[in-house]
Structure formats: structure tokens, C-alpha cells
Amino acid sequence: MLDSLRQRQANSGTIKGFVRHADSEEGVPFANILLKGTTWGASSNENGEFTLVKVPAGNYRMVVSTVGHQITEQSVEVTADQTVSVNIYLLNEDVQLNEILVYGASFRKERITEAPAAISVVEGKGLQRSASSGQLPKLLEGQPGVDLVQSGLYDFNLNTRGFNSSLNRRVLILLDGRDLGTAFLSSTEWNGMSTPLEDLGRVEMVRGPGSALYGANAYNGVLNITSIPPKQMLGTKVTAGIGELSMYRTDIRHAGEFDHFSYRINAGGTSGKTFSRKRTTSITGDRKLDIYRAATDGNFQNQINNNQHFEYDGLGVLNNEVAELRGGPVNQFYLAGRVDHEYETGGAVIVEGGITQVENEVIVTGIGRVQVQRARRPFARMTYNGYGFNLNIWSQSRINMAPEVSLSTGLDLVQDANISQGEMQFHRSFLDERLFLVGGISHRLISIDTKNTLMLGTREDNTSGFFGQAEFRFTPELKVVGAARIDRSTLHENFFSPKAAVVYSPIANHTVRATYNKAFQAPNYSELYLHVDHPYRGFTTNFLGTATTGLVYRGNPDLRVEKIEGYEVGYNGVIDGTLFLTVDAYYNNLKDFVSDLGAGFHPTILSPSILPRKSYRTGADTSFSHAVWSYKNVGKVEEYGYDVSVNYYLSDEIILDANYSYFQFEIDKKSVSIADASQIQPNSPRWKSNAGITYQSKNNYDVALKIKYVPSYYWSAGVYQGQILAYAMVNLSAGYVVNENLNMNFNIANLLDRRHYEIFGGSVLGRRSTLSATYSF
User: Fold this and answer.
1) DSSP string spanning 427-489?
2) Helices (H), 588-722
3) Would you give the distance in Å from CA 544 to the centre of its chain?
4) pLDDT digit string (tens) for 66-123?
5) Model pLDDT for residues 663-720, shown as the tens digit of each residue
6) How many Å apart are CA 706 and CA 59, to the nearest integer?
7) Of 237, 241, 291, 662, which is most buried with the most CB atoms under 10 A?
8) Three-class secondary structure of residue 33 per DSSP
9) How many CB atoms lie within 10 A of CB 692?
10) 89-to-25, 65, 295 alpha-carbon distances in Å
11) CA dihedral angle for residue 137, residue 143, residue 145, residue 148, rounded to 10 degrees
């Protein structure tokens, strides 16, 4: 065996090449290169160059694909200890989306038209055009079926197909297989990434339940993000940007290779003012003194409550804030590095790590706004991939360098936590690649210490998952997919997630599919173990200034997981070589919703109840009556809707796109009381639409203009309940390649500066324009 291994290592060579436009002979960036029938592959860099190293000697068919061009195959012969140079010329494709390859639906690369799920992809020029904003969720804003709402600069809630919320986690967010959710709330801190958008290779949005492969929280979908490997971005890159709201950003990245290794190191930061505004000002000039006075002096409490300055109508006494918003810009600083090692016999090991510091962002939560003063997000990842085996081990922490501030209570909050996970996958093809099998296991460790600010004590928990999938192609036109996963946890009951799909192409370029899925969302630590005493809200005080009634928030450890069972049919097709049409319709049964915080929901503590508490005046132990707010599982819901998307290629340079989404839900009135029914709000409009036009010039520039319209709808999430007013927004993005070293990107969100809010309780949003220049050498 060792002799055979040494022989294979000795008989290997290198392929270096250039992917070019057939008409202009200019480089094609971010094209996918694959040696047919092997695991060797790469992507071209910004200039169209690529390298494949340690390829066993022999003859191969090289398959090259990218958005906007026909898939091209070319023969290449690799000679031992030699470097072969190839030039690949790509012809324009009439309909771009017909050639996009995706991964997230099946854990294998396949054409988007053959995937057993509804998928949208952002990559290439579409991604680079919008990179200057630094806001990853904005890449998906115009995609079909996507609910995206924003407050401040980086407080985004991303969802699909209804039931959005503040701190939404119904879409699982993965970056190179690493879950970006925080431990305590499970939501995503979007400015906590240490990878700038320019270094992302692709973003896939898989819509619909996905727990059969991904486990907990792949409830309404999965966002699968992949970064560009170092060997595809060799050299040094410097990026600088400026923008409205006093925004500036810098990033420097260097990537190189030697022997079997390639590496990347990058550092950067972004700073800018926020859309969030003060809703109160300190009366005493000291936040903690304001809290003390409000907790012990009824007249001072009234003074605080009357000192509110809301940006729009509908906000009331439950939305009062005692803490003044901290001044200063929203900042993000990051440092990261990655090393890849490729074995001559195939397979590769990736080791990477990084840290990000975030400052001053304001987050809308169910108990009021919270300001993150300063937190750090370190992470590390090790991956092995080869011979049908994948091992991915990662660990990440969130550390409060300064406490977060609850603006509604004035209390300091801490979310110190660590998540570590290992996952193994095996995949193999049989019967001349007609049968494809995937299996795997995962195990996660979670450690949380909030310093008794959000829950009492510490928690050490773990979760595990076991999954498998089989895909069988009966004919070139027909394939079926079946998958299942079992998840266990110290936090919730076991859950079984099955999946079945049929994909059929009756004629070329036309595909129909039908799918069935079950998925679940696990309660987060806040819903299970929250323990916060409101320092003054709801109090009445006697003449001695001693509180006689109060308000407390308590988690419910008896909560069950939220469940969804979904049925979906879809169609995509190319019509007359210029029109790409997709239609996706779904029907879902949902049950065991976790409610918002409400009085009387705790399973063992009545509301009101006499509860022990320390006096804010003396610190002595005391007891008095409290309203007790908690969570509970409520109701059953049927939801249904459809997404229609059209891309029309007016010419090789002009693309028109439009999509329309419809959503409706009905509550099973037998499963819920009239009072509890009010706890079930989809936080999504009945319908929404997007339209756009993209111009891709052959003279090194491209421009996209997008329009988004959202009609009015009702929002209910914790203490924030009210009407979202209808709004329309125009977004403009452009990219220009000045020369082989310099390119520029320009982005304007809300071009017409239409003031609006997208989360009830969130900030009023205006225009934000950004410009970045990148120099590579």
C-alpha cells in the first residue's frame, strides 16, 4: 500500500489555466472548474486564473461552469512532475440560471434546475456589486420568498414563508459549515463575521424545511455561505471604502502558496453611524442612578416615563426606555487566517481561525431594545475533505468585553458562551453514479454563563444528530430522494425529521418536483431559562418609596420544540431560450409555537405571585406581588402560498427580473383559546414583490437597479406590537473594473431616501450609499 501511495505521489502534475470570455478574451472570475469523475476542482480568481495541484498523471475531461455562460468541457492531459497550461473560452448562455450549480439541497453539486428544493443563488458579479455595503443579508433582499427586515445597521431578521420575528432563527445560517447563531438567543449577529463580502464565493438560499439534513432551526430554510479558498485569490488585496452616515472601511488580505500549502490572512474594520435614535435622555446623568430612583420613587418613575421621544406613532408605555443610547459609531474590527493543505493523492485539510469585535449596535428584542457595547467573537475551524469523507470541527465563542445594556430596564446583560461542534459525513456513488448515498453524525457542546444577568447559574448542554440520504436516478429524466435525521438534546425532546422528493424533467430545460419535509425549531435559552427582574416597570410605591408591585420575566423549561410538516411542488423551465421561470407552491402544518412573553404563561408560577426580591433601596431581602411574564407553546396553524420568479434576457447585456410571493395562514381555532390566538402573528405581509434590471457591459462595468414593495401588515413580537406601514424602496448597485489591478463597487440602499421602519419598535431607515475601491497585486 505504501509503495502504491508513493507511486501516486510521484506520478502527479499541475494544471494552470485561464478562463476567458470567448468574445472579448477577458478573464472570467469565480468560474467553477472540475475534473470529471474526480474530486479535484477549483475556482478561477478575480482575473480568471486557476491552479490544480498534485493531480495524478492521466487524461481528464475538464468541466467549467459559471453564471452567464454555457458549461464547457475540454480535454487535458496531465504529465508527472510537469505543469500543463490551458486556456478555456466560455460562450455566453441565453439563460444564466440554467447553468448554476448548487450544493445545499442535497450535500452534492448539482444543477439548480435539478435540485430537490427551491433555491436562490447570489454569486459572481451580483455578489461583488453589493459587497461595499458590508451587509450580507442585503444580498438576498430581492430574492423570491425572502422576508428581510432591518433595524439599525446590522440588526437583520432573515426568514422565508412567514412567521418572522425579532431575533428570528427559523433560517439556519452557515458559513463554511459553521453555524453563525449565538448560543443564548440562537440568532445571528451579522456584523460578527471576520470574512468581508468580497471574499465570499457564493450564497445559497434554500427555502423550505430542511431539518432532515441540517437538524434544529432549519425550520423555514437554510442559508449556505461559502468563502473563496486561498489558492483562488493569490496575491495581495487592499480595499478602502467610504459612505453616508460617516461610514468608512478598510480591509487588507494576502494569500499565497508553497509546496502543498496555500494560505490567507486578512484584517479590516468598518465604522459608521447607526439609524437607531435615542428615545430618552438621562435625568440624573447616571444610568444606574436613574434606575435606582425609578425603582424607589414613584414620582421619578413618572418623570422617566414622560421623558420619551418615539420616532413614530404606536409605541407606548411598554416601550419606554430608562437608559440613554450610548453615543459613538457602530464599529466592527476583525482578523482572520486560513491554511489549506492538499495531499498529492487527493483530499485536503483546512485550518482557520479569527476574531471579530463589535461595538454599539442596537438590537430589537422581545423585552425591548438592547445595545451591544463591546463584544468579541473568536472562532476556529478544522476540516478534512477527501475520498468521500468529510470531517468538520469548529468552535466559537461570544465574550462580552463590556456588558450589553437593556435600554428598557437599564440593566447590564452578559452573554458569555461557547459552542463547539464536530460533524462527519460520508458520501458514495454506486451503479454508475445512479445511486448516491450520504450519511453522517454531528455532536455539539454548548456552555453559557450570563453572570446571572439573563439566567441563574451556568449551563452545560449537548446535542447530537444522525442522518442519511439516498438519491436514485431511474432515468436521466427522473430521480427520487429520501432522507431522515434523528436529533437528541439535553435541551429538548428527541425529534425525527424525514424528507422525500421526486424530480422529473419531461422535456429538456423543463423540470417539475414534489417534496415532503418535517422540521423543527428548538427553544432557545432565553425561552427556557430567562430570569430577569424588571427594576421598576409596573411598580407602585408607598410613601416610603418601597416597591409594592413589580414585574419579572421567567423562562419556561417545559417548552416543546416548534414543529412544521411541509408539502411543496415546483417548476422551473427555460422558454424560448430567453426566459427562465420558476414557480414554487407550498402547504405547511405548524404546531407548538413558542409564544411571546405574556402574563400567566408560566407552568408553575401564577401571575401575580408573591416573589422574593432584593430591595433597590437597602439591598435587603423582601417579598411582594409581581406580574410574571413567561412563554408557552400555543396553537396549530395551516400556512400556504407560492413564489413566482421570472428572469428575462433581453440581450446578452440586459437582464430583467421580477418575483411575486403570496402567503396566507389559518389558525386551528380548536387548538387555541381566543386570548392565545393573538400570540400567533406571522409578522409577514400577505404578498410582496420585487423587480429589477441589470446591465452587464462588455466594457468592464455592470449596473443593477432593484425595486422592492411591501404592503402594510401587523407586527407582534414581545413588547412591540403595531402596524408596519407599506413601503417601497429602490436600490442601486454598480461595479467597474478599471484595469487588471483596480476595481470599484458602488451601492445605494434606499436610493430615494424613503423613510420607513421594517420592524415595529425598530429604527427609521433612510438612504445609505457606500463606495469601495479594491487594488490587487
Assistant:
1) EEEETTTTEEEEEEEEEEEEEEE-TTSSSSSEEEEEEEEEEEEEEEEEETTEEEEEEEEEEEE
2) 674-677
3) 51
4) 766 777 888 899 998 899 999 998 876 544 444 577 888 888 888 888 899 999 999 8
5) 999 999 888 888 778 778 999 999 999 999 999 887 889 999 999 999 999 999 988 9
6) 46
7) 241
8) strand
9) 19
10) 7, 11, 73
11) 30
701-710/687-696 β-pairing: antiparallel
Q: Which CATH number fits domain 101-277+325-523+559-596+631-776: 2.40.170.20, 3.90.960.10, 1.10.3470.10, 3.40.30.10?
A: 2.40.170.20
- Find all residues with CB under 8 Å of 115, minimum gap 6, and list them: 102, 105, 106, 503
In contact, 551 and 534? CB cutoff 8 Å: yes
What is the rounded distance in angstroms from the CA atom of residue 106 to the CA atom of residue 110?
A: 8
Beta pairing class for 83-90 and 235-243? unpaired
Q: Alpha carbon 514 to chain centroid distance?
A: 26
Residues in Cβ contact with 636 at an 8 Å cutoff, skipping those fewer than 6 apart: 589, 590, 591, 667, 668, 671, 672
- Closest by CA to 281, choosing from 237, 327, 233, is 327
Tell the burial category of 333 from Cβ atoms under 10 Å away from its Cβ (0-12, 13-18, 19+).
middle
Contacts of 608 (CB under 8 A, 6+ apart): 549, 625, 626, 627, 628
3-state helix/strand/coil string of 61-104: EEEEECCCECCEEEEEEECCCCEEEEEEEECECCCHHHHCEECC
Q: Is 232 helix (H, G, I), strand (E, B) or coil?
A: helix
Alpha-carbon span 777 to 516, nearest angstrom: 50
Residue 26 three-state SS:
coil
Give one DSSP letter per residue of 266-315, joined into a string.
EEEEEEE--S---SB--SSS-HHHHHHHHHH-HHHHHHHHT-B--SSTT-
In the chain, domain spans: 2-93, 101-277+325-523+559-596+631-776
Can you tell me the distance from the alpha carbon of 776 to that of 46, in angstroms, rounded to the nearest whole number?
9
- What is the Cα 751 distance to its own chain's centre? 24
Q: Percent of the chain having pLDDT more than 70? A: 94
**In the beta sheet, which residues pair with residue 565?**
518, 589
Strand ranges across the sheet with 72-78: 41-43, 32-35, 58-65, 72-78
| Alpha carbons 621 and 616: distance in angstroms, whole number | 10
The residue type of 13 is G
Mean pLDDT computed over every residue of the chain: 90
Count the neighbouring beta carbons within 10 Å of the beta carbon of residue 556.
21
Whole-number Å distance between alpha carbons of 541 and 538 = 10
Residue tagged 438621562 (cell numbers): 282
What is d(CA 449, CA 418) in angstroms, rounded to the nearest whole number? 9
Contact criterion met (CB below 8 Å) for 439 and 468: yes
Question: Over the stretch 402-431, which tens digit does the pLDDT of each residue have?
Answer: 999 999 888 999 999 999 999 999 999 999
Calculate the CA 451 to chain-centre distance. 28
Structurally, at CATH architecture level, domain 2-93 sits in Sandwich (2.60)
Q: Give the residue from 376, 357, 368, 456 showing the smallest Cα distance to 416.
A: 376
609 vs 624: CA distance, rounded Å: 8
What pTM, to 2 d.p., does this model score? Answer: 0.88
User: What is the helix, strand, coil percentage profile of the chain, to 5?
Assistant: 10, 55, 35
